[in-house]
Design a protein that fits this description.
The structure is a homotetramer.
Chain A lengths: L1 H21 L1 H4 L4 H12 L5 H11 L4 H13 L3 H11 L2 H9 L5 H13 L9 H14 L6 E4 L6 H10 L7 H7 L5 E7 L9 E8 L25 E9 L10 H15 L5 E4 L6 H6 L15 H14 L6 H6 L9 H16 L9 H8 L3 E6 L6 H7 L3 E6 L4 H9 L7 H8 L1
Parallel strand pairs in A: 4-5
Antiparallel strand pairs in A: 1-2, 2-3, 3-4, 5-7, 6-7
Chain lengths: ~425, ~425, ~425, ~425
């Protein structure tokens, strides 16, 4: 009962703090009012976040009639004067609110935190997408790649930074401090983006292996007992074997793309002998797609369904006969790449090439392929038996992919991808055609 | 002739670089395209800037019909979906262009530089105000006070920072390195805002004198031979005697207000004995206003012209008799505060109090008064014979002002000022009434 | 065979490198010759160190006859001229050799490393003590406390520094990174000395707990699950619960003494509420001394063996009856402080007070007591059941000691200790008298 | 009178502070006693320094009889034990005193300062050379080149560092901040040694010009209006045109030698195109030596006075006829290199080659030549009309010298110089022979 009262009072305090900060008084305040909002927000219970953000949605929305008036004037005369008036009435006061909030002593962190909380509400409260739009808009401006600092993370880095790598590595989990140390040895690199305002928070990081050649199998790269190679002359290829975001509140703020390219440039400058930049990536969703009959993609326009591809897919599916035994059953029965028939292997590789080739189509494309191909990488190689872990077998029958970053072609490739085209090597082309 | 061709080619290159950067290819480019725009811009002749910015104005403007459609939908239903659509079509592509430009290696500096150039064109090309609006919008977001670092500038600071103080000090010119050194001694302080991206550029700086009491005269504060006081126990008052912007490209981006308050907080923490924060400020424009008959301000609504004030003004003007001899002539004739009659002194002080009291009114208010009173300071004291320099006598008959920053009242004062009210001390009140 | 040849060649190369570095050519060399010595030394096998250091001993020794001549001149006339000549011929060329060695790129580290290796040879080759004397002499000069930087070590410190704490903690072993993190929380502190030349090497570190009162039991201080107290107002006592050297090559170079005092000063400045600085220390060797009959110390002059002390000791020993059952047997039989009789407890405490009171006597004193009392601390309290670990019961029947650092008395106490006097509290005095 | 008493009291306080610091109590003191010595020393009047240092000389001298005893033991048996005993009694307690003094908060600076003061007393009080010996001994150990950090000094450096360059430049005076800035532009470099303990004190600095070829004339190098060359490809030669000590208290502590070599190595790494490292140096004392008859050097052993050299000298002197008109008179009469006859020019160049060739001989050698040749440089070229300033004409008839640092030969050259040999180019050899 008492608790209920306290909660209600907290919410009302938070709303009042919002009101004050966005008022005239808030315009020139140094930071106390911004601090108030942050402190009051932090006292809210989780189930009060909806009310907090709904308040922002309802009370700080643009005035519809003023918007219409300004739009009509702008249509009549697109002059600077009308343009400016239009901008002023259309921008929601929420954006100014978030900018003022940023003046608080931990302001930037608080805004990021709020978005993290908000994102978890969107499923249930889709109208809060308006607030999310504003948050993402200011965050994209503040976390502009021009403001991010790329730093190498190594064994000299602060423990508080390193523990965040352990926590956030999403692709190949880091098994404690010894595993981490191995990944920071001279033949491994780790780079992260930092924002000047959050110096102990890696925002996104990429792990790199320096190798004599393009790898086809993941195990040696993440083996914490692997011998360290420290002869620089042996480094010919830089392999991005993992890239992870640390900050859910920055979802949708483009960073990975820029990080990979900046790392490639830096490694290129440090090791003139390294000329190849490539990933070794998983194919999440592949076997689910196969199991579902290898649908060529919702929203794929009719004219892209080339008959040849359809035929190749159907032939391959017929080889696998998943309708007689599901993939899970087959794995349970001991299926393993080493035991697969040549036909089965061929069928799986062909299907993977078709699946990845759909990356540029709407909702159904593989997200990893989308990310790298969208960045301007090329689909270079599909590797048989690249990941023999349980997870690897289940999601992609053990297949892994190399995406190739050729710095001279990434912009061109990116544009072709944006126009619906996939850039792939001859080897992959042959698979598609088989 | 050849030069003309080169110039034309440069402009066309610059425009193409804009086009590429804002295109799909530019979306994910790391920095080369942004670098291209910067480099091409720097090759333009000054008289080509108009063409460059006009290109931005014309080609990267929102689509009027799409704006109208979105506005109509929003009026019909202010849902999140319609809100987001509205924002997307209303935001001009220029803003995205500047955000991409920021990825260039010297991107932030280049954007600031472009605005500096643009501001000089606005008089002749008022329609470019639309471009300026966008520039100021992104710069305000990037130079949010939450991102600025306040650093003390002293004799340990890099020479390249210090020379910028010498160059940009706008109120009391710094006469070389020896003068500067005096202003950085233990009884003087200098603080500046820096942006993480521009670490050797002070953006705005304030000079402070630590004194035993509120000063009424400027000379001892800026005397480079003044003896240094290093007994902390003698510091009771912090005097902001000069505040200068270093970066014309950031005009209109609020910083001074936050700087003064942050400095006050820091000095308060460092010297618990300092309880008074005050300025010693000039009154530019005062004698011009007097000479023009002490008009009470264009745009001052009728009901604010209190008869008592009018009477006081007219009485004072009658004492001065400037219609019989202009201010310039009188100064040339040797006028000096020490020689003024008591009546003259009274008249000038009264007029100054009236003039400063008009600060909150529209266009005509005194800019220094507007700045400090708008920040929430109080009009504390008007000092006779505070600045006996030629400039001081000419612009304000030697008068200077103390504005008082009482940290506990600044937000309240700011709000009252925004509502058209001036907060002043009793002493100033008596002058107005006299 | 081949290996033998290689080894011999390596030794000869190392000796030649010594010769060159100490020659005229070596005087002005920048660093290549010094690098040569370091590199050649590192190629030696462990069993060749004796030869290396013996070479230094024999070839770089002062000339005896020149020494005598200079000494005779100095006795005849202690003039500056004779003084200087004396110094020149007496100083062994080894010292200049080590100073030149320090110019190598990793010179300081190499010299420290050499001493670490040398110390392990002294038992078998006592004449190498001459080389050790020179090494310690130059290292004491270089690692003068005036050159050491005290830094707080916390979770922001580089992992490479932190892992050295885990490795070198000698008193209460750190059980991995989670344990370490607990010891770096706000209610714990860790400070270390660093040398500018070895920035990632903590030389010696002390761990501190901030508590509301003087602790008598060690367990809660080193419990990695202990709740963190972060209310500064609760901190009244700073407890040095562990101090460890990281660098064996610096044995005998005074640092701990200065570290503890500097930490106390810094904590005093940071937390004015902390007025008590105290240790919670083990008593290694205590039960061995009891078992051996509580001998009052080889080399204790007769007049210090006060009859009262002897009597107290004998009475206490009689209570314990260790001649009938050894301490080990008793522990094996389940002896535990909680089960001890009041008499037994009294006897052990009395014996401990006598044992610790012997700290200032020659070879036999307890080293921990010697260290703290020699630093000027006071013997403050002996705690029953302070350390119930197996090791604690075995070495000191679970007793622990608080040594008190009263910053105002440490110099006085140090001098009294140097004159053979122990400074203790009344409580300890009563134990001695009981 | 009162002042006299105060002075006496100050001296007595200083002496007592010495006594306490060197006593047992001082052994483990953290820093208060050391601070006491520093503070009391700083209160002394200049004329009391003699008393202060005499106290150190008399009271902290080794015991002569103990020295003799230890020396006799050492002659009888040079064992480690006797060696250590010898070292202990021979080392003067002053050295330990200075080491303890170094623990004071500004200890290192204070010790350097004391030596600066002491050096000015040596002429009048030669027995204080013993104290100076000890000071130099500890300072040489502390300022070992292995501990010095070489930093580039540029326009980003703190003003407090830069003003020290202006103050201490001893060869080509820096005419204010604008002149300094020119010397820090991309085609000029400045490097200095710093000690970690004195981070804002450049100890010694060298100024470098990056040029396309070896310069023969100084003017363009130190012209503050000279155009800046920023094309790296044009840099072929690094010219050390000035080297200056900033710290008189470190006289005799070798640094310049190491600085020049480290700078050469760093420039070599940064600019692979720079292969030549050379000075452009003055010849102070040359015309004085000529005027005095070109004596071949006090202490030059007879067999080095080669008859050919004597003849060359006498012939050249005869050409100049300085006995008929002194050098000063001749300059006053308008003498200028451009007006000199070919014979005169030849005579002066020959005499300069002979004069510089005497650098390796005892007291009379040219100090600049001694420094560079002693460092292992080669006498490369003597330039006619290299320095037309008044000072240049007066001291060396306008001649300047290039000394060449060939990194591969410096150690060899150094050794030859130590053996009395000068390494010179063929061009210089021809001059000697002419």
């Amino acid at each position: 009962m008492l608790e209920k009262l306290t909660k209600a009072r907290n919410l009302s305090k938070a709303n009042n703090a919002i009101k004050r900060l966005i008022s005239e008084r808030g315009e020139s305040n140094a930071l106390s009012m911004a601090d108030d909002v942050v402190n009051n927000y932090r006292k809210l219970a989780k189930d009060q976040y909806v009310s907090f953000f709904t308040y922002l949605f309802e009370k700080l929305h643009p005035q519809a009639d003023a918007v219409l008036k300004a739009a009509q004037d702008f249509v009549a005369d697109s002059s600077a004067r009308n343009y400016i008036q239009l901008q002023k009435v259309v921008e929601s006061p929420r954006q100014e609110f978030f900018r003022r909030l940023n003046r608080a002593s931990q302001g930037t962190a608080a805004v990021v935190e709020m978005r993290r909380d908000l994102l978890q509400l969107l499923d249930k409260k889709p109208e809060l997408a308006a607030v999310d739009f504003d948050l993402r808009h200011v965050l994209s401006s503040w976390f502009n790649p021009g403001f991010l600092k790329m730093h190498r993370v190594d064994w000299k880095s602060p423990a508080e930074v390193l523990e965040k790598l352990i926590k956030h590595e999403a692709v190949h989990a880091i098994d404690g401090w010894d595993d981490l140390r191995r990944r920071l040895q001279p033949d491994r690199r780790c780079f992260a983006f930092f924002h000047p305002q959050l110096p102990s928070e890696p925002l996104i990081f990429v792990e790199v292996a320096l190798l004599p050649e393009i790898p086809t199998v993941i195990t040696p790269l993440v083996d914490k007992k692997a011998e360290v190679v420290d002869q620089v002359s042996q480094f010919k290829v830089a392999v991005f074997y993992s890239i992870s975001n640390c900050e859910p509140g920055l979802r949708g703020v483009s960073m990975g793309n820029f990080l990979i390219k900046r790392v490639a440039e830096q490694l290129h400058a440090e090791f003139p002998g390294i000329k190849t930049f490539v990933t070794l990536s998983p194919i999440p969703g592949f076997m689910d797609w196969v199991a579902a009959g290898g649908n060529l993609g919702a929203g794929v326009p009719a004219d892209r369904l080339k008959p040849a591809l359809k035929l190749a897919r159907d032939t391959a599916l017929a080889v696998l006969k998943l309708e007689s035994q599901s993939w899970t059953e087959r794995l349970a029965g001991g299926w393993h790449p080493d035991l697969a028939s040549e036909k089965e292997k061929e069928a799986l590789l062909t299907l993977a090439s078709i699946y990845l080739g759909l990356a540029s189509t709407g909702r159904d494309g593989n997200p990893v392929a989308k990310f790298h191909l969208g960045n301007g990488a090329k689909l270079h190689l599909i590797n048989w038996a690249g990941d023999l872990s349980r997870k690897g077998l289940r999601q992609s029958a053990g297949l892994m992919v190399n995406y190739l970053y050729d710095l001279g072609s990434v912009e061109d490739n990116h544009e072709r991808f944006a126009n619906g085209e996939i850039v792939y090597s001859r080897a992959v082309g042959r698979l598609m055609a088989s």
